[in-house]
Every structure is written in structure tokens, then in C-alpha cells.
């Protein structure tokens, strides 16, 4: 059987799924296509020609390499294909986005045939995805006196690759489609349980919202062929939760436009909107595609004569509709005047934030990547020619307030800024191009990141990046056929690209499935670092971390840079004393509740939360920063004390050394470099040369929140409130309730201790509770299943050494075995303790889930509909979030405990302790560390 006949078999299979032929990435298959194209009498010639032209993936895929080589032969006259004239071959090369295509174009442009060289040069002038090796060739040719090279460089210095593109339309007609009421999680657009298909864009597109919704969108497009469909989160925020480039890809697939006629299923320029706008991480993802994200503000709070919001019986503000965006409403986006208008021309809302000069550039260029690479290319060309680059791009907004101090995030951005006016100090609102120190890629978006790297023709990690890690945690629960097909391929690509990988393609070390955020938290060894990770929970307790889409991760890996505005900050401090029976997770929940009480609205949304954590070590502080993703914050920064930071860095060093000892180091000695960097940072702190990061006393904040620990007297639970009469109030993280609200009566069907929200201390708490209950009752019986998934293998090793794993094993009815991992996802649970493989487990929702309709009490972060538990026909699934001791006790009781039962159960147990930082820190650290 040839590769081509195998491909035909796959095509027939896909036809049965209603799918087109899968785009080709294998160079060997393209070589067979070429052989059949050159054979005039071949029965497959016509189809092979079609696949070659329209169905071969661009970038650095092996398929692109073979295609570019053959197109070059056609241009040189070494091969003749009547259907592909040299001019058409040049056009095809121009759509291949760098890598082999740029290499071929440079060969032609710097070759001896003057006519061909000039044609190749004209195509090269439209390209932006050039890398160091490509630029070096142009530089050398220019210095050797090559006129063609000089012409290309002059064009680049004028940024003609951008200026000659069509301007965006002054007016964009849209027709509305309400995807859902309330906050729309990216799970609705790209469900976690379909993560395996994300790199197959057409197949994955079938999972967006529902088949019925897809049909309704198609019907709107047929009724309004001259308009774009605008996807809306009515009474909510669009794109909360995970970043999900796949979600934006799906929206673009159904409502956007094709990026290139020669690249199937890659669409760009979607239009999305929300009553409360677009979540920060999702907005960045929309920018990647050159899309538009609009804050509709179509529902506002009803106010009384005193100007204060009028509340309903539940204490929630009553909303009034300013204007309707019901499905099928025709609107006009006036891009020139930056307003949204109805059919009569009436202005509805100012949308200037969606049309900043930078965003307009992304729209014009078809996405933010082209702008990032274009600016770099222009700078290179101008420097090579010894001239100033032509002012083309919107200047970075540089906001500086004389006499005003810097917040912690402003300090980090100023330290890492690139291309700033010399001597200029930047404050919030400034646009900044910054160096990225640490990058993380996770396994369910990693395949897309690999695709993005191939598409932008990147072949190796930027030397600017201190360290990067590819995880295997999101697919840790079940080693099924999908994982077996995807993960080894991903690990091989990323390992070759220069990342530290959880799985060794050569099989030298044991496959790790440690939760990515925990690993990134360890390999971040500088509190002044900027971290980019392919997950919304990239929220480190050292430095400032931004969760990002797979494309932004790819860009950071390839260039070592990111571009974003400096966010505003909200300062969070603490007062009072933490009760001995409370866990730090309750402080996290209380922060959200007290913030809403103090501010009346979520002031965290879209901003950086600067939490003055002081004496809490990095692992425990991460519980707070991790949660900030659910507060819709842009990021979070921990302001720590010197000795605490030093101890956290020492712990990080020891864990990096464990990675080295396991054989995870690469040829670049990345891990050794991180240990050296940690040592230098510790020395700076100890010498007083550079203390732990802290804001200036006269820094300016958007708001300041003071959390009163004295008010936290019982465990707090984040409730999805699935039956709230107001749909927009369901599945948000704003409903925080004390445990007494449930009166010890709420049935719990499953407990889950795991995800990135827990640390070693949490698993020790499980062990301690089992020991205490066994001592008091003789044995422990579970009235509901309890699933425990430690975040890392290190935790399990340490628990075994300290004697805690024994009690967990004693009561477990299932314990993971890496030699024989599960091959199918569990669909039913017994009332036992399950010790699962380290990783995300139920929190991810792509493999394991609770039984439909269950009420789950979990330590995780995800309470969105269908994520941890799907609805049953007769009952909605609920995912309530609480501290570890509450979850454990609820699984044992089969219900939520009363406050008294809880206090009795945790008496004498070492919970995660915390007290506000003092001038002289006291010993407030948990005994677990």
C-alpha cells in the first residue's frame, strides 16, 4: 500500500463523518503526489494536483519543504506542469508563510537569472516570516553588492509588506447571534473533552456550541450574505476560563473568512462580543486572528434617585436593557468613528477599545503575528542599510506620570521592556514589547502550538528564553489511543525545538505528568520574570505570568518576546488573624466575596491583582495566584518578603535538580542555567543589592482591597448556583457561600482533591484526616467517592518518604500504575478512595468526568457547566469548589458537613496557615514545608 492509497482510505473514512480530506503535513505523501502529477497518464493525477495546490500545509512541515522544492523547479524550468505556470508557482510560494518557501525564494532572488530574481524579490517583499538565517543571507548578499538584496531590504525598511495591504473597511455590517446568556466559557466554543481533535481544525469545528447552533449560524449567513455573524455572550463576558486558541479557531471557522485560498480550514477575523466585553486572555487570542472583540454594555445597572444600584431580593443589582442584540439583529460597526450603530444609524455604544491603532494593525495584517515579525524585519533592514526605518506602525503608547511610583507589575514591565524611549519610565496603559523569560506549553494545546510554530516557520527556541517546558498533565488520566497518537509526536517536536519535555522521545527517563503550572512555578527563579503559558492558569507566585493562547505561546518560544499593554493593578492586603480551623483556600474565596462587598463590582477583571502575601512560600501562595484566573484577572503578582522568597527559590532549585537527576536536562543545559540564575538572585537579595520585588510607596492603583481575616470563621464554598433564576448569575465564581448555608444537608456525589490548586500540604491533610478519623471511629467509610490526584510525582515521593502515602494506600480502592496506565476513561465510581496519576484529572474535563448529574465538591478551579460534570436529563451537574478538608469530609459523609462537624474533624490538623506580613515576619508557614 502506498501513502497515497492510505490517504484515499482516510478520505473515505472522513466522508462518513461529513469531513473533507485532512490537510497534508507529510512530505513523503507530497512526493507521491508530485510523482503522480508528473505522470501524465496517472489515474490519480487530477486529484493529486488538487491536493498539492489546495491541501498541503505551509510553514516548516515536511510537506511544505517538498512542495517548495518542486515549485522552485517549476520556476527554473526544471519541471513542467501545465496547470502550474511559473507565475502561479510564485503565488503558491507567497502563501506558504516562511521556512522552506522563503529559502526557495531567496535561492531564486539571489540566483543568476535576473528576470527570475526580480520576480522572486517582488514576492519576498510581501513576506514577513523571516528568521535569523534568512536575514543573514540578505545581509551577506547586500554587503557583497547584490542589487536585488538591496531592493528587498529597502522595501522592508519602508515596511511595504504592511503598507501595501488593503485598509480595513470603514463600516462592517454584522448580524447578531447570541451563543448563550451569562459568561461564555471557552468550553462552549471548544469543549475540553474534544481536546484530542484540536489540531484537526475541520473535525474540531464540529464541536462548537452545538449542531443546532451551527445550523442557525449558517442560516443567518444565507439570509445576510453581505454581513458577518457576531457571536455574543448576552449578559456576560465572552471567553472566560481557558485561553483556547481552538475556541477562536472554531468561531473563525464558522463566522470568519479564509486566510488563504491554498490553506484549508484556517480562517481569521471573527467578530465576538459580550455585554461585559471579552475576557483578557481571550481578547489576546482574538487579536492573533485579526478579529474584533466588542464590549456591548447593552445591559446596565438600574439605579435609584440616590444614584445607587437597585437590588433584587437576592441582593443582586437589577439590570436594564439599553438596546437589544437578540439573534438576527443587524448592526453596523463603524470602524472609522469607532462606534456601534443600529440599522437606523443611531449610535449604541463607543467601541474605541476594540479599534486601538495596534488592534487595527492586527486586523489589516490578518493577525498579530505578522505585525510582530514585520516590526522585527523592518528594524533589521533599516539597521543593515544604516538608515532610519520609515515610521509606519502605530507608535507604542508610552504613558509616564512624573512623580508617580511604580506598582510591582509596572516595575517588571519596565525591567523587561524592549524598544522604549531611552530614560522613559512606563506606567499602566503603556504599550510594551517585553522579553519573555519562561514559557510553558501544555499537551492539549501543544499540538496547536507546534502547528503555529510550523506555520510561522520557526525551527528552534529563541536564545532569549531562559527556560521552557512542555507538559503531559492534561492527558495524564487516560493513556488512550488518542493520547498515544498525539502525545509522543508532540513531545518529539517540542524536545527537538529546545523545550524541556515531560516525556523523553528517546525513553531515557520516566514519563512525567506533573501539572504544568507547578513545574513553571518551580522553574521561575526570578521574581522580576515574565512568564507566558498555554493555559489560563499560568499564574506564578514569582514574577508575573500571563495565560495565553497556543499562538502567543508559539510566538514567545520563537521570538522570546510578547507585546501587550501594561495592565492596571488592584492592591490586595490583609488584616486580622486567621482562625486555626480555617484553610488558606478559604482566604482565597473570602477575597473574592469581600472584594465584591467593598467595590460593588469585580474590579479584578482585566487587571493585575497585586497580593501582599509576605510570609507564604511559593507553593502555598500559588493557591491565591492560581485562583485569580477565575476572578477574570489579567494576572497576579505576589509581593513576598526577602527570606520567604529565598526559601522559595531554594525549594525551586531542589526541584530543578530532581529534574536534572531524572535525566530531563537538554543539550543547552537549560536546567543548570536556571539553578545558576536562582543562585544569582538569592545572592542579590542577601547582599541587599536587589531585595524582593515590591511596589513603590507612591504607586497608583485602580483600587485597593483589604481582606479582613477576622471575618472568616467558617469554610467558604464557590457555588455555580445552577438554578439561579437569572441565567447570567449561573456558573460564575461570584457566588461565595459559607458552609452553614447548606445546613449540613447538601448531598455530595463525589469529592475531588487535585488540580493545580493543591500542593503537598493538601495531600498531607487528606492523610491526616484519614488517620484522625480512623483513630476516632476505628475505620473510615466513604459515602461518596473521593478522587485524589497529586499535582506532581515529587509530592508522592515525599509523601512516601514521610509515611503519609501508607494511609492513602490503605484506604484506596484504586491506585495508578504507570506501567499499566488506564486506557479508558472512568464513567462510574464506587464509594472508595481513588489515587490517580499526577495531573489535571477531573479539572480538565477532557478525559475523566464525574457521573452525569452529580454534585461534585472539588478543590479545583472549574465550576463551568459541563466541565467537571455534565448535566443528566433529570438533574443538573454541579461543581462546587472548596478547601481540601471540606472536600474530604464531604466525601466521607456523603454530604456537606455542618460548621461544627467540620471544626471537630480538623482539630489538631495542620492546615495551610497564613497571617498578614509584618515588619518582622513571624513563623506562619505550614509545617508541610
Automatic annotation (TrEMBL):
GO terms for molecular function: 2-methylisocitrate dehydratase activity; 4 iron, 4 sulfur cluster binding; aconitate hydratase activity; metal ion binding. One of its GO terms (cellular component) is cytosol. Residues 411-894 form the Aconitase/3-isopropylmalate dehydratase large subunit alpha/beta/alpha domain. The keyword Metal-binding applies. One of its GO terms (biological process) is tricarboxylic acid cycle. It is an enzyme of class 4 (lyase). InterPro entries: Acnase/IPM_dHydase_lsu_aba_1/3 (IPR015931), Acoase/IPM_deHydtase_lsu_aba (IPR001030), Aconitase/3IPM_dehydase_swvl (IPR015928), Aconitase/IPM_isomerase (IPR050926), Aconitase_4Fe-4S_dom (IPR036008), Aconitase_B_HEAT-like_dom (IPR015933), Aconitase_B_HEAT-like_dom_sf (IPR036288), Aconitase_B_swivel (IPR015929). Residues 6-162 form the Aconitase B HEAT-like domain. It holds the Pfam family Aconitase_2_N. Coiled coil: none annotated. Gene3D superfamilies: Aconitase, Domain 2, Aconitase, domain 3, Aconitase, domain 4, Aconitate B, HEAT-like domain. It comes from the Bacteria. Residues 176-406 form the Aconitase B swivel domain. Its EC number is 4.2.1.3, 4.2.1.99. Keywords: Iron, Iron-sulfur, Lyase, Metal-binding. PANTHER family: ACONITATE HYDRATASE B. This is Bifunctional aconitate hydratase 2/2-methylisocitrate dehydratase.
Amino acid at each position: 500500500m502506498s501513502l497515497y492509497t492510505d490517504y484515499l482510505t482516510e478520505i473515505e473514512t472522513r466522508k462518513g463523518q461529513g469531513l473533507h480530506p485532512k490537510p497534508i503535513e507529510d512530505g513523503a505523501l507530497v512526493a507521491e503526489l508530485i510523482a503522480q502529477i508528473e505522470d501524465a497518464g496517472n489515474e490519480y493525477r487530477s486529484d493529486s494536483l488538487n491536493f498539492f495546490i489546495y491541501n498541503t500545509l505551509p510553514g516548516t512541515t515536511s510537506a511544505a519543504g517538498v512542495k517548495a522544492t518542486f515549485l522552485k523547479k517549476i520556476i527554473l524550468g526544471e519541471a513542467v506542469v501545465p496547470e502550474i505556470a511559473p507565475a502561479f508557482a510564485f503565488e503558491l510560494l507567497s502563501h506558504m508563510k516562511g521556512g522552506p518557501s522563503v529559502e526557495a525564494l531567496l535561492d531564486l532572488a539571489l540566483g543568476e537569472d535576473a528576470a527570475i530574481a526580480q520576480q522572486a524579490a517582488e514576492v519576498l517583499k510581501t513576506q514577513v516570516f523571516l528568521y535569523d538565517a534568512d536575514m543573514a543571507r540578505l545581509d551577506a548578499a547586500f554587503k557583497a553588492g547584490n542589487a536585488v538584496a538591496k531592493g528587498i531590504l529597502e522595501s522592508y525598511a519602508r515596511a511595504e509588506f504592511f503598507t501595501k495591504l488593503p485598509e480595513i473597511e470603514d463600516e462592517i455590517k454584522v448580524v447578531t447571534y447570541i451563543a448563550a446568556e451569562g459568561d461564555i466559557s471557552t468550553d462552549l466554543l471548544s469543549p475540553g473533552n474534544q481536546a484530542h481533535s484540536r489540531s484537526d481544525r475541520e473535525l474540531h469545528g464540529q464541536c462548537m456550541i452545538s449542531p443546532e447552533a451551527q445550523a442557525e449560524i449558517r442560516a443567518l449567513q444565507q439570509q445576510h450574505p453581505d454581513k458577518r455573524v457576531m457571536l455574543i455572550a448576552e449578559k456576560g463576558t465572552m471567553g472566560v476560563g481557558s485561553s483556547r486558541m481552538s475556541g477562536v479557531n472554531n468561531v473563525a471557522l464558522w463566522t470568519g473568512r479564509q486566510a488563504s485560498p491554498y490553506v484549508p480550514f484556517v480562517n481569521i477575523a471573527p467578530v465576538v462580543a459580550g455585554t461585559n466585553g471579552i475576557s483578557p486572555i481571550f481578547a489576546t487570542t482574538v487579536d492573533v486572528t485579526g478579529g474584533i472583540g466588542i464590549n456591548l454594555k447593552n445591559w446596565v445597572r438600574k439605579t435609584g434617585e440616590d444614584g445607587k444600584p437597585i437590588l433584587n431580593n437576592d441582593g443582586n443589582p437589577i439590570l436594564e436593557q439599553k438596546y437589544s442584540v437578540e439573534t438576527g439583529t443587524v448592526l453596523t460597526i463603524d470602524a472609522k468613528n469607532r462606534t456601534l450603530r443600529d440599522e437606523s444609524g443611531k449610535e449604541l455604544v463607543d467601541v474605541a477599545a476594540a479599534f486601538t491603532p495596534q488592534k487595527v494593525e492586527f486586523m489589516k495584517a490578518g493577525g498579530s503575528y505578522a505585525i510582530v515579525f514585520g516590526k522585527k524585519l523592518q528594524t533589521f533592514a533599516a539597521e543593515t542599510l544604516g538608515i532610519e526605518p520609515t515610521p509606519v506602525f502605530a507608535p507604542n503608547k508610552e504613558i509616564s506620570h512624573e512623580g508617580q511610583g511604580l506598582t510591582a507589575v509596572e516595575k517588571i514591565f519596565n525591567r523587561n521592556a524592549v524598544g522604549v524611549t531611552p530614560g522613559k519610565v512606563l506606567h499602566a496603559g503603556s504599550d510594551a514589547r517585553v522579553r519573555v523569560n519562561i514559557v510553558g506549553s501544555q499537551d492539549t494545546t501543544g499540538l496547536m502550538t507546534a502547528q503555529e510554530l510550523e506555520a510561522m516557520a520557526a525551527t528552534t527556541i529563541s536564545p532569549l528564553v531562559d527556560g521552557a517546558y512542555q507538559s503531559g498533565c492534561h492527558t495524564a488520566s487516560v493513556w488512550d489511543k488518542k493520547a498515544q497518537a498525539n502525545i509522543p509526536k508532540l513531545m518529539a517536536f517540542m524536545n527537538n525545538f529546545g523545550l524541556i519535555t515531560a516525556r523523553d522521545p528517546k525513553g531515557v527517563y520516566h514519563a512525567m505528568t506533573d501539572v504544568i503550572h507547578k513545574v513553571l512555578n518551580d522553574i521561575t527563579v526570578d521574581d522580576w520574570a515574565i512568564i507566558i503559558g498555554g493555559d489560563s492558569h499560568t499564574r506564578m507566585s514569582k514574577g508575573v505570568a500571563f495565560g495565553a493562547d497556543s499562538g502567543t505561546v508559539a510566538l514567545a518560544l520563537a521570538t522570546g518576546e510578547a507585546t501587550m499593554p501594561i495592565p492596571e493593578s488592584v492592591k490586595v492586603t490583609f488584616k486580622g488573624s486567621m482562625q486555626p480551623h480555617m484553610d488558606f483556600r478559604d482566604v482565597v474565596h473570602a477575597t473574592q466575596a469581600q472584594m465584591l462587598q467593598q467595590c460593588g463590582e469585580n474590579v479584578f477583571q482585566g487587571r493585575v491583582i497585586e497580593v501582599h502575601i509576605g510570609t507564604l512560600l511559593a507553593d502555598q501562595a500559588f493557591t491565591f495566584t492560581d485562583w485569580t484566573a477565575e476572578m477574570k484577572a489579567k494576572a497576579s503578582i505576589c509581593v513576598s518578603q526577602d527570606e520567604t522568597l529565598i526559601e522559595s527559590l531554594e525549594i525551586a532549585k531542589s526541584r530543578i535538580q530532581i529534574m536534572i537527576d531524572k535525566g530531563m536536562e537538554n543539550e543547552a543545559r537549560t536546567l543548570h542555567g536556571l539553578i545558576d540564575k536562582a543562585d544569582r538572585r538569592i545572592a542579590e537579595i542577601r547582599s541587599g543589592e536587589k531585595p524582593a520585588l515590591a511596589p513603590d510607596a507612591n504607586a497608583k492603583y485602580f483600587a485597593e482591597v483589604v481582606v479582613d481575616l477576622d471575618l472568616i470563621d467558617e469554610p467558604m464554598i464557590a457555588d455555580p448556583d445552577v438554578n439561579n433564576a437569572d441565567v447570567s448569575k449561573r456558573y460564575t465564581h461570584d457566588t461565595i457561600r459559607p458552609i452553614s448555608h447548606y445546613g449540613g444537608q447538601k448531598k455530595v456525589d463525589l469529592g475531588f482533591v487535585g488540580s493545580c490548586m493543591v500542593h503537598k500540604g493538601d495531600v498531607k491533610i487528606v492523610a491526616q484526616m484519614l488517620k484522625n478519623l480512623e483513630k476516632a471511629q476505628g475505620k473510615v467509610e466513604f459515602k461518596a467517592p473521593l478522587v485524589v490526584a497529586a499535582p506532581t510525582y515529587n509530592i508522592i515521593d515525599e509523601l512516601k518518604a514521610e509515611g503519609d502515602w501508607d494511609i492513602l494506600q490503605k484506604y484506596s480502592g484504586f491506585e495508578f500504575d504507570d506501567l499499566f496506565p488506564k486506557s479508558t476513561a472512568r464513567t462510574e465510581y464506587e464509594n472508595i478512595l481513588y489515587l490517580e496519576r499526577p495531573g489535571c484529572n477531573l479539572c480538565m474535563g477532557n478525559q475523566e468526568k464525574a457521573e452525569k448529574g452529580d454534585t461534585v465538591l472539588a478543590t479545583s478551579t472549574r465550576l463551568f457547566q459541563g466541565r467537571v460534570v455534565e448535566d443528566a436529563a433529570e438533574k443538573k451537574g454541579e461543581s462546587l469548589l472548596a478547601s481540601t478538608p471540606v472536600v474530604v469530609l464531604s466525601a466521607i459523609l456523603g454530604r456537606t458537613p455542618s460548621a461544627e462537624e467540620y471544626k471537630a474533624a480538623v482539630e489538631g490538623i495542620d492546615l495551610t496557615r497564613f497571617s498578614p506580613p509584618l515588619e518582622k515576619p513571624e513563623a506562619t508557614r505550614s509545617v508541610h514545608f
